[in-house]
Design a protein that fits this description.
The structure is a homodimer. Chain A starts with a helix and ends in a 5-residue tail after the last strand. Chain A has a nine-stranded antiparallel beta sheet. Among the domains of chain A are: about 290 residues, Beta-galactosidase, Chain A, domain 5; about 80 residues, no CATH class. The first copy, chain A, is built from 19 helices and 37 strands. The radius of gyration of chain A is 26 Å and the shape is globular. The first copy, chain A, has about 775 residues and is of the alpha+beta class. The interface between A and B is large, with 55 and 55 residues.
């Protein structure tokens, strides 16, 4: 209550408040541990906003495959390397995904130890001990750009910070004549023996090491280079090879294992030995590059030319404050504020900067490219992030989103398929999930007039993408006007999403004035009709014969033509044509009932256990907030004449599915999509149809939000009479003008001024 | 006899003769099949002089390791991929070593076939057939820059030519609806399953393919990129992966095996399908790069922008004629002429050009470097080639040798060890054999005033190399003033060679006026004393205690402190101090007897069978011409007052160990060293001590040789009264001045004019 009063006060002093907010440290509200338990798949480590280096502790890990070759389901929760319930740390890795639904990375695990040298992270038959350390959350702390923990097994305090491309380690040792820093080039997130392709290490001098690692994980041909500089010369060093395959030349006639500065092979762990005094800190800067060790060195020397850990930590914290201060919220509680800023933090972790300080990066064709006039980004989890993350970027990060579109166009130009990215990272397309949702990101930016990318080129790239016949049933979709279920799995999901993506392309074509193309793609955008079965009232798998498939269970999420969803929820996916979809499904009343049932029905346990992404926590009835295909569904009541039900559901979801604890995410954060849903919804609206400039009104959770745009304009969002009970929105005015149809436009949002939500405890139409 | 008369005639018409020689096609005298049988390790394929692409047939190959893991000794003879006695060809590979004593390469095997597609080169349990083809030598032909053969199993005529960086294939097919061109990315010379690290292929369009292969063979981190362009679009294509390790993304939901343009994995064979008419030729250009596929494309489009096979063939033949015409010889027989020009040809196959047309190349540090002011070369088999090949280059290829020195200096600058190359290829040091003989190459060029490389820098690089303590016993050598046998194997060989190399460094220091350095290295150059055992009269393994090792067999080539030699022959290795060595070993008479015995003694079979490099063919008594450590020995009689014995031995070796047939090499050609010995000896002299500008006079085999130098000067070498019996040299005059001590200087040789050897059938002092 005290908070509310304070907020109300601030609210009366707008100008002042802005002044104040610029000096406020918003990083204090971020809990990097939020969601690090169970299935959030986020990490607590140190990173700059959208930083290439995401330096984070890796806790006692599980192998993806058991020794008998069987899949180990426990692996999945280690997508970001860290699980909060674990009690041991095996080291700090420089690359991590935030919240993804599958994984990779974990490059360059570094671990400081003392005592007898142990080179395996975990117990092996060879060693009675791994180099892992016990740790306690009592000694652990994290804030944006900073992480610290005591490694209790060695009495070492570890602190981490990072600039965009350089991780900065500070290890405070006890007195020891056997202090080691281990560089583990074997470890991978989703570790299995065969992921490494090649590793290469050069000891350039007694304090500088360079090298690279090539892996064949989710990114099939991934290469990351590094330069690693110590603040103190090591006394000696060495390595061990963990496979017998390496050919060491015909004559192995002198010792190349210890103090020999050139190391190469498949699976290698290297170590560097020091003498330390009690309380002596050894610092280490670790720069990445996708280009070369030369590139990594350039990044290192440009970004952190000094040995001032605190300076880097403060610079990165300042960068975070710039990002977080773009939305200055007053909330009903400190917990809400923490949840909000932690969510906003999570929306700034990917895509990541993927180029050296000189603009060079390794492209899809494995050639070195230069970003010309933009910053190149990677990690595009587009099936997730087109929904709310990129729309949020058009509010909070329009300049970066412009660069992300340009990065996707560069991807297209490098792609041998002439395709925009589907799910791409580190110069690789991993083909994860369906649709070609880069088109949505582009159409959304165009609709909102964000960026200066070439619209004609973007349209052409989208058209090229939409015509790659060998891609995932697309040829059949074009020929049959739906994806036949006997030719391609997930046939209904694909049909629905291709149709939406085609609508996005049509919007681009309209915008650039290409009517004939617009006509082609508007026609394609209606193909969703063709999988609607009027008989059952569901979107349903259809065969190439034209018949709907006989066997059909609308509750099952497997083998029913949908992917990560069922006909009940995923079948409501026609964001480009919601009114017509409602008509198809029986009109407003019937559709409202369908939504009501969706949120209230009892789901048989058998349908839930099959889905690895979601736990009971992320589910409300048959609505699955823990995964993306339904994220727009709570807002669909706006189209049935029952916005109050949207408001109820949205508030309920925000209050029950999010909190600022380690269990504060009810499913994978999915590269920020889950958090972006929260940020937008907390502000009172959501991007139901990316590619249009409209937002659907929900029910804001904040009391006040001051949003600052790059052009200097600010828009203040005020939820008058906000409290836990006043969840209904009786009116919304933009600079005094009342808005209609529960729709806010991007122009209204970003035009500056004041948007006032009148909140009430009861809904009256 | 007819030949001799003709030669004598020409000899009288000098000016005319030069005129004529410029138009003469010397390539007609080259037999690329010379030495392709047994242990010559040379290849008959198509290449430009020092070309990066050395495109050659690979005959039915053997795996290096048998299925039970044991070494297969038959592998060794396939060092260059081809054995003349074989009856099947499995394809044409773009990189091959010429004559080396160990192997690697064999990149990008291409094979045209017809009929049912078979993707394994040899019989496998899966297939009843491999894609190999029978062939006959009747249809096979080769000349410098050109190779052709009929692939009898498919009725395909294959023709190959090459520019510096591009292989050019021409396949004339029968009528077929199932014509294939296979790109085998699995095959390696010294094939074993685990050599590939990664392969990557992109089908850029219906006639252009790019990609790369990374291997971990002798070059531990080797990457070669390619661009492959067909003259006719393929109708379809596909690939097969030969290992199960590759991770294909989480969703393998559409066909990525056929007509899918992006292929990556460890072991891959790809195929391209065509319809062909009877007699239709499909041509294919295949460019290499160490940098990138962009680089390969640039090389392709720059070097062969057309589809005129004949033009490329003629251009490359013309390049060969430029190289071969530098020494225009008249010989006693056509066979001698063929042997001579084939030897000269073999001295122009390596080192190879290792940079793109724009000067970029992948260095030792795996970064991309640009050659600034020189052409970068690789494949330095220096323990072999410093002896006669690089000295020959100072006569025939001074500009290239200058670039080779600069390439070695660039290697030093990229080396994390600060070392000059030992045995390097494709941006890798493979540490093969002993010593640091790059110092010899540099000292020899400096002594002969060849090139414009930076002498101070070259000296510093040499000094750095000579002080890398962890290298191969070098620290012990410095500390003990010899390599102790209890600390390092091959201890005597190393001591002798380090001492010689140190003398080379001293010569550089003298030349640049650094007296103190010269003193240091002159002292080191005397360390050979320290392994001479006055008791036994042999160079002998010595222990760190200072005692000579008790167990010692001066005839054995294994475990006696020598490598690829024994105390009897390798012990005569003090090229920098021959007079003192002779003194040590008892003076002229005793040493002469030692040499006499060496050439005449009966060797127990047990000593020969142990040595894989040499067959009985390459051995005269205990003198081993089939390997390098003794190549200077026949010339040592010059120092004992018995030059006539040198003349006898040298003529005998030339006449018995070389001929223009497939068996015309008595051991590995060793990157041209064996051939260079022949070329120099046939001209009448040899580089006994590279690093001095002196040549030891032998007995010329030619009748006349007109040597043209880059500055336009010509020196005519005339062996007056030359015939098979007149093997003794009664006098040598340079422009009328008689030379002394059986020593010709480089200045005398290259100064222009006439060098006349008076040949006689009996020797009189």
């Amino acid at each position: 209550m005290k908070n509310s009063i304070l907020a109300a006060c601030i609210c009366l002093l707008c100008a002042c408040h802005v002044e104040t907010s610029e000096k406020e440290n918003f990083t204090q509200y971020v809990n990097p541990f939020l969601g690090t338990s169970k299935m959030g798949h986020v990490f607590p480590g140190a990173t700059a906003p959208f930083g290439m280096v995401q330096l984070s502790p890796q806790t006692n890990f599980e192998r993806m495959f058991n020794e008998d070759g069987s899949y180990n389901p426990d692996t999945y929760k280690y997508c970001a390397g860290y699980q909060h319930q674990d009690s041991t740390i095996i080291g700090f890795a420089h690359t991590n995904f935030s919240g993804t639904g599958h994984s990779d990375l974990g490059d360059f695990l570094v671990m400081p130890t003392t005592g007898e040298l142990v080179l395996d992270p975990i117990l092996t038959s060879e060693h009675g001990k791994g180099f892992y350390s016990a740790f306690s959350h009592d000694s652990e702390a994290a804030s944006p750009g900073y992480y610290q923990v005591n490694l209790d097994s060695y009495n070492i305090q570890a602190e981490l910070t990072a600039s965009d491309r350089v991780g900065y380690h500070k290890y405070t040792f006890p007195k020891s004549e056997e202090a080691h820093i281990i560089l583990d080039m074997v470890y991978n997130v989703y570790h299995h023996e065969n992921k490494n392709v090649w590793t290469f290490i050069r000891i350039e001098n007694d304090s500088l090491v360079t090298g690279y690692r090539q892996t064949k994980g989710w990114a099939r041909t991934k290469k990351v280079f590094f330069a690693m500089q110590f603040s103190k010369p090591f006394q000696s060093y060495g390595h061990k090879k963990y496979n017998e395959e390496t050919y060491d030349g015909f004559y192995r006639r002198f010792n190349q294992t210890e103090n020999f500065p050139e190391i190469a092979g498949k699976d290698i762990r290297a170590y560097f030995n020091f003498n330390t005094e009690e309380g002596e800190s050894i610092e280490m800067k670790f720069a990445l590059s996708s280009v070369s060790t030369d590139g990594a060195l350039k990044n290192l020397n440009t970004e952190i030319p000094h040995w001032d850990f605190k300076k880097t930590r403060q610079e990165t914290q300042a960068k975070w404050n710039v990002e977080l201060s773009k939305i200055n919220v007053t909330t009903l509680s400190l917990d809400d504020k923490k949840t909000f800023y932690s969510a906003l933090y999570h929306t700034n972790l990917s895509p990541i900067i993927y180029e050296d300080v000189d603009g060079k990066y390794r492209g899809l064709d494995q050639n070195i490219h230069s970003s010309d006039g933009f910053t190149n980004y990677t990690i595009f989890s587009l099936w997730d992030t087109y929904r709310a993350l990129h729309p949020l970027f058009n509010i909070t990060q329009p300049e970066r989103n412009n660069d992300m579109v340009k990065s996707m166009l560069a991807h297209h130009d490098q792609s041998v398929h002439d395709m925009l990215p589907i799910w791409s990272h580190y110069g690789n397309e991993n083909w994860c999930m369906i649709g070609y949702h880069a088109t949505s990101v582009i159409a959304d930016a165009m609709a909102k007039n964000v960026g200066d990318f070439d619209h004609e080129r973007a349209l052409q790239a989208s058209v090229n993408t939409a015509n790659v016949r060998y891609f995932d049933g697309l040829g059949d979709y074009i020929d049959y006007q739906f994806v036949p279920d006997d030719k391609s799995h997930s046939s209904v999901s694909k049909t629905l999403e291709y149709a939406y993506n085609d609508w996005c392309i049509a919007q681009m074509a309209i915008q650039v004035g290409n009517d004939s193309l617009a006509e082609v793609f508007l026609k394609r955008s209606e193909y969703y009709y063709n999988v609607f079965d009027t008989g059952s009232g569901y979107m349903r798998p259809r065969l190439s014969s034209g018949e709907f498939r006989e066997a059909f269970d609308p509750m099952d999420t497997h083998g029913q033509g949908f992917i990560e969803g069922n006909a009940w929820n995923y079948g409501l996916y026609v964001p480009q044509d919601i009114d017509k979809m409602i008509d198809l499904m029986g009109g407003n009343t019937r559709f409202t009932q369908h939504l009501d049932s969706l949120f209230t029905m009892e789901i048989d346990e058998k349908y839930i256990e099959k889905h690895e992404d979601i736990t009971r926590d992320g589910i409300i009835g048959n609505y699955v907030h823990g995964n993306e295909p339904g994220h727009h569904i709570p807002y669909l009541y706006n189209w049935t004449g029952h916005p109050e039900k949207t408001q109820e559901r949205v508030r309920m979801i925000m209050q029950t599915m999010y909190d600022p604890t380690v269990e504060g995410l009810c499913g994978n954060d999915d590269a920020g999509q889950m958090s972006a849903w929260y940020v937008l919804s907390a502000l009172g609206f959501y991007s139901v149809t990316p590619g249009s400039s409209d937002y659907a009104i929900g029910s804001p959770l904040v009391k006040v939000a001051l949003v600052t745009f790059p052009n200097g304009k600010t828009t203040k969002i005020v939820a008058r009479n906000q409290n836990r009970d006043n969840i209904y929105v009786s009116s919304v005015t933009v600079n005094g003008r009342k808005i209609e149809n529960n729709t806010l436009t991007h122009k209204e949002l970003t035009g500056g001024g004041e948007i006032i939500f009148e909140m009430t405890s009861t809904f009256s139409k």
